[in-house]
Amino acid sequence: MSGNRAVAYKGPGVVEVIDIDYPTFELKDGPGVNPANIGRKLPHGVILRTVATNICGSDQHMVRGRTTAPIDLVLGHEITGEVVEIGPDVEFVEIGDIVSVPFNISCGRCRNCKTGKTGICLNVNPDRPGSAYGYVDMGGWVGGQAEYVLVPYADWNVLKFPDRDQALEKILDLTTLSDIFPTGFHGAVTAGVTVGSTVYIAGAGPVGLAAAAGAQLLGAAVVIVGDLNNDRLAQAHSFGCETIDVGAGSIEDQLEQLLGVPEVDAAVDAVGFEARGHGHGAAAQEAPATVLNSLMEITSAGGSIGIPGLYVTGDPGAADAAAKTGSLSLSFGTGWAKSLSFATGQCPVMKYNRQLMQAILHDKVQIAKAVNAAAIPLEEAPRGYAEFDAGAATKYVLDPNGYITA
Ligand code: NAD
Ligand code: ZN
Description:
The protein is α/β, with parallel strands linked by helices. The chain has helices at residues 57-63, 111-114, 154-157, 164-169, 171-174, 180-190, 206-217, 230-238, 251-259, 290-298, 321-324, 332-337, 353-361, 367-371, 381-389; strands at residues 4-11, 14-20, 26-27, 40-41, 46-54, 78-86, 98-101, 148-151, 159-160, 198-202, 222-227, 242-245, 264-269, 299-306, 341-343, 373-377, 395-399.
């Protein structure tokens, strides 16, 4: 038993590294813990000593004050760790295993988990289907941007890496398996990307870049990434993507220059509700329906739009009254007229993480390079959050116990 340092939300724009309790096999009361989850017994859990835990665009929505996240919420849903304690009901996970943890918390026992829909597990969040570590309205599971974290239903949830030394050697790649790589890949799969597809991905943040790498892995003929951040577009270009500056003019025109036609076979929204409008100056103000509406315009009839970008039911910081309750001004008729399909929601990480792990271990994909993963100490998390918020073309990986720097 030891103490536990962790990254906590302290109010809009502020995170701090604080002391919290070492985990136990019971969910105790704390910031954001759903009353119905307090005292929940977790004999099926394991305690991990964190090897790597990443800062995500999803964390930024909370840290920017765009959600109802409570002060002192411990953040972190992208977790890789070494098993240091196992609960009495755990059968197949062993002390010393190095494991990736899907950001979705799921029970493996409900009707959704049984059909692979682990992003909408019915048994872990009393508020609504679906849950995650360290996230507002997700049941109150303590976040993993910490030295130690508890993972419930461990036999079901964790993905064990086959070899410890190899895992530590490739840790900057493998750390993406807890969220962004499966999430980006899911975006590409649900957009229908296959061999020879032309693909547009909105957003060159880590999820968009992972979607681009995923689309390449699926055999896309051309992957075009759009953003208004030039450093991030350069990052996309660095591994073979075409790029579109959405501030520089119409996406259709830019697509036509690249492809000869103003449309693509498949499109992915890796932006979400904090989307900026297209164009310069005032046009680039936040406009939450921008990406969804533009993807309906540019996806060819009969195509699909993968939407890993996050949309919310409540946004206290929204520009207009409708968006404050999650209502967006969608030109849905465009999508209907073109028979488009839409795939939304949390990525069911478990559906993809094993295959993507194999692709990493066998050098079929260079995901750490694609997203520019960089490790920093846990104590420097506030700097990581600030730089990421300012648009750095970097995926920040926290290294709470020195496994990566060692
Ligand atoms: P991020 O904030 O780093 O990246 C978003 C990017 O979108 C930024 O680079 C921004 O400049 C760009 N952008 C804004 N408006 C745009 C526009 N109109 N067109 C093109 N680009 C635009 O976030 P991230 O970590 O890459 O995550 C992306 C989204 O995916 C977030 O909404 C996040 O919450 C969500 N997410 C969802 C899941 C899931 O399971 N569905 C998992 C992880 C993250
Ligand atoms: Zn994430």
